[in-house]
Specification:
heterodimer, A: 437 residues, mainly beta, Neuraminidase, 4-stranded antiparallel β-sheet, 28 strands, 34% strand, B: mainly beta, 2 helices
Chain lengths: 437, 385
């Protein structure tokens, strides 16, 4: 019998260092760092009615009353095994996709649900991200290859505004073997022949990071109440921040990494052993550009914009006018989908801390906002409370509690109760469970 | 939209909503449970579970589970990519042993010297001598493995790699075994055989020899190909694959899960048919009768039935085969299920469940005594705040 020996501690330690996690615990001036402490609430939210299920949960936001809004992908279910009640004929008593947008009160009761196609607007093929603007309206992006717009709704789901042009309908399927044509630019179009088969998805809309007409897979958005501007993380195909006039919905300006003009040229996959070198022009850094996707653009109270350059494991910080301020890498050994998925601010007046959702490493990093140093982290992989499978989005409420959603097969929203500021004792606190009753 | 739901409810037969409403007024004496949301403890080494397709409890109330390492994708198991793409996660070894407090105390399994590890391990049970038995439902799997409590190989039963062709009359091998259960007094093992075969097989626990076998209604099994289950047609005279459990009770009966037929059949230990019942008979596809476990009172008065299609556990009166109540619903939170696949009880009457597909969990439901409960579905059985 070959016994699975426990992975030796030394090997684990080596992995840990290799993956670049050995940066925590470093407080200023030799003192133990302080950071917010949390504890998962394993019984939040309350179970939903109607055998409703949450799919890949790709956005979370909190309104002024601490109601928690979640958006999920209603088409992310396995028809055979998961949503038998929605089959025709039904194959079982359970389950059905919940509506795309779910609103929970602070106690976790589902109080409203809406979303999906309707009159006067095109629901995104893959809704992505949810944000609540200063007027209490709800903004939703879309990450699918055909999604080029955002939608704005009232808090109860009444359609208000479309931002960005809706992609024109895909052209008629070309005959077998024809060239991919002009709808499949940027080297991303065709997976070769076979188009025209019924299951073939519509052609991807090529990126255009200099467009003032449309987005390229808008991932999330944040708002500047004073100037009535929205900052859009754009996105899954584009490589930019797009700034929108909230009154007119017009894209008024945009910028790429380091505040330079964005560039849609494909980039090789991030390689921690040979990271792309900085590009300096006229004494200023202009590259490497953002990878795709650009998944967050969060504006702090003191006017700094924090951008998630996910696949490059990178946070870049800008002034509101797009002037580059600084950058940091998180878990720089992370490959593939990257470590910087979403950012939320702590709710103290100074917004001292950033919470960074890391869906590759299955944890949330707690970062000192000014220094961008990782103070500590929590979470681990798994399906139990406080564990994660691809933690995708993060938000905070007025009490400092933290909410996360998980995509892929994570398919959850979780609440982490704020337990005050405490000394950091570990680089990763693991699973933050309440003490036993 | 509302109309659609009503239509759905009606289509599921019997106006389930109306029945539930009426039933919620009614109560019955039955075992009560409460999920423990913090059991088991987190695994070390960034280990995660794949499809978790077996659970067994030993005589010290240690809980064994078996799961499928090869069902983890890179989005979950980036630590074992070459080179690693992330700090998390890695597949846990296939067999995990937890103590009653939920601490992982041993982990083993996988290919080794002298035996063929199943292509798709399935079911785990612990016999009265503390040995561990594992089946397999991969396409070629046709054997059973027996290990000591801590994973030393003891016995391979049945010729391996013969499972691609069913043969429910074979004495040489099985057809993709789902589960093994034991009659300690007779030193016999009951095999739910299985995903290829359509029979119950009974073994000598020491030498592994197949002593007898039977099909539905105790008839000789036939490997007939059947059309899909039709709830409006008469009950078929054969098991459908998979035959998913075959559990002997302590009063000499054997309870068999005829899963896609939504049916439990009860036999005497010699294979004589006694009775049958259908559960959630409108269920299509995977079926409703996935696994059974008995309550731990001396009479084994109650039976717990895992229904991975309707995402719940039924609490049944074992003698009458009536459903007293049920608990659970679909979802990823504690006490919810995604394809609850296997079920077992410990000496204190607690229930353990495992979930396959993307459920990938083991959950513990703490026994709270027998009391009045609704005859309707209890939904998610959470502890009080």
């Amino acid at each position: 019998m070959r016994r699975h020996s426990w992975i030796p501690a030394a090997l684990l330690a080596a992995l840990f260092v290799t993956l670049g996690a050995g940066r925590a615990l470093r407080g200023g001036s030799g003192q133990a760092a302080q950071a917010p402490a949390f504890e998962v609430d394993p019984l939040w939210p309350r179970p939903m009615p109607n055998h409703w299920l949450l799919g890949s949960a790709v956005g979370v936001a909190v309104d002024a009353r601490d109601h928690v809004f979640v958006v999920h992908l209603t088409n992310s279910f396995n028809a055979r095994t998961e949503i038998g009640a929605a089959s025709d004929p039904p194959t079982g008593e359970c389950c059905r996709p919940a509506p795309a947008v779910l609103e929970f009160d602070p106690d976790g009761n589902l109080v409203r649900q809406w979303g999906g196609p309707g009159n006067g607007y095109a629901w995104p093929s893959a809704n992505h991200g949810i944000a609540i603007d200063p007027q209490g309206n709800i903004w939703i992006g879309g990450s699918a290859g055909t999604d080029t717009h955002m939608l704005k709704f009232s808090a109860d789901g009444r359609f208000l505004q479309q931002i960005g042009r809706v992609a024109p309908p895909p052209p008629p399927a070309p005959s077998q073997g024809s060239a991919a044509g002009d709808t499949a630019g940027g080297g991303r179009g065709g997976r070769g022949g076979g188009r025209g088969a019924a299951a073939q998805p519509p052609p991807v809309v090529p990126p255009d990071s200099r467009s003032t007409a449309q987005f390229g897979g808008a991932a999330s958005v944040s708002f500047d109440a004073s100037t009535r501007e929205a900052f859009v993380a754009d996105g899954y195909r584009n490589r930019r921040i797009a700034v929108v006039d909230m009154t007119t919905g017009a894209i008024t300006r945009f910028f790429g990494a380091y505040g330079a003009a964005p560039d849609d040229a494909p980039t090789p996959p991030y390689n921690p052993d040979s990271p792309a070198p900085r590009v300096i022009v006229d004494g200023r850094p202009v590259g490497p550009q953002f990878g795709t996707p650009v998944t967050c653009a969060e504006l702090s109270r003191d006017g700094m914009l924090y951008v998630c350059d996910r696949s490059n494991n990178r946070i870049q910080v800008f002034q509101k006018n797009g002037t580059f301020v600084k950058e940091a890498t998180i878990a720089p050994r992370t490959r593939g989908q990257g470590a910087v998925w979403d950012i939320a601010f702590s709710r103290d007046p100074e917004q001292r801390y950033l919470y960074v959702a890391d869906g590759s490493n299955m944890k949330v990093h707690i970062v000192d906002r000014q220094s961008l140093n990782v103070l500590t982290s929590f979470g681990d992989g798994g399906r139990q409370p406080g564990q994660f499978l691809a933690v995708h989005s993060v938000a905070t409420d007025s009490r400092g509690n933290l909410y996360t959603t998980e995509t892929y097969e994570g398919k959850r929203v979780q609440k982490f109760l704020f337990k005050g500021i405490a000394p950091v004792t570990r680089q990763n606190s693991g699973v933050l469970w309440p003490t036993r009753r | 939209m509302v109309g659609a739901f009503v239509a759905l409810a009606a289509a599921l037969g019997i106006g389930q909503a109306a029945l539930d409403a009426a039933a919620s007024q009614q109560t019955v004496e039955a075992p009560r449970f409460e999920v423990d949301p913090l059991w088991p403890k987190p695994l070390p080494n960034h280990w995660v579970l794949g499809m978790t397709i077996g659970v067994g409890v030993d005589n010290r109330d240690h809980v064994f589970i078996v799961h499928r390492q090869n069902t983890l994708q890179q989005t979950e198991a980036g630590l074992v990519a070459d080179p690693p793409v992330s700090e998390c996660c890695a597949p846990a070894p296939p067999v995990l042993e937890f103590d009653p407090d939920g601490n992982l105390v041993n982990a083993w399994g996988g290919p080794g010297e002298g035996y063929v590890w199943p292509e798709s391990n399935h079911g785990i049970t612990i016999d009265h001598k503390d040995n561990v038995w594992i089946g397999g439902n991969g396409n070629p799997d046709s054997h059973i493995l027996k290990f000591t409590h801590d994973g030393r190989f003891l016995l391979q039963i049945g010729e391996p790699r013969r499972g691609s062709q069913p043969n429910s009359n074979s004495l040489e091998h099985f057809g993709r075994v789902a589960k093994i259960a034991f009659d300690a007094a007779a030193n016999e093992a009951y095999i739910a055989d299985g995903y290829g075969n359509k029979r119950v097989a009974v073994l000598d626990m020491d030498n592994g020899r197949i002593k007898r076998f039977w099909g539905a209604y105790g008839n000789p099994p036939k490997d007939t190909t059947m059309s899909a289950y039709n709830p409006d047609a008469p009950l078929v005279r054969h098991f459908r694959t998979p035959v998913h459990c075959a559990d002997p009770s302590n009063d000499g009966l054997v309870y068999v899960c005829d899963r896609p037929n939504n049916r439990l059949q009860v036999f005497r230990k010699d294979g004589t048919f006694v009775k049958e019942v259908q559960i959630a008979p409108r269920t299509l596809g995977d079926g409703s009768t996935w696994d059974v476990a008995f309550s731990r009172d001396p009479q084994q008065k109650y039976m717990y039935l895992a229904d991975g299609k309707n995402m719940k556990v039924y609490v049944m009166d074992r003698q009458s085969l009536t459903v007293l109540t049920s608990f659970g619903d679909g979802g990823r939170q504690p006490g919810q299920f995604f394809a609850v696949h296997s079920i077992a009880t410990d000496s204190r009457g607690n229930i353990y469940t495992t979930e396959t597909y993307e459920g990938r969990r083991v959950q513990k439901f703490v026994f709270k005594g027998v009391g009045r409960v609704t005859t309707a579905n209890q939904g998610v059985v959470w502890p009080g705040r």
